[in-house]
Amino acid sequence: MTKVLVTGSAGFIGYHLCKRLLEDGCEVVGFDALTDYYDVTLKERRQQMLQQSPQFRVVNERLETDGALHDLVIAEKPDVIVHLAAQAGVRYSIDNPRSYVDANIIGTYNLLEAVRATPCAHLLMASTSSIYGANADMPYAETHKADTQMSFYAATKKANEAMAHSYAHLYHMPVTMFRFFTVYGPWGRPDMALFKFTRAILQGDPIDVYNHGNMERDFTYVTDLVNAIRLLMDVPPERDAPVGQSDSLSPVAPYRIVNIGNGAPVRLLDFIEAIETSLGRKATRNMMDMQPGDVPATWADETLLSELTGYTPQTSVPDGVAAFVDWYRDYYS
Question: Considering the entire predicted model, what is its pTM?
Answer without folding.
Answer: 0.97
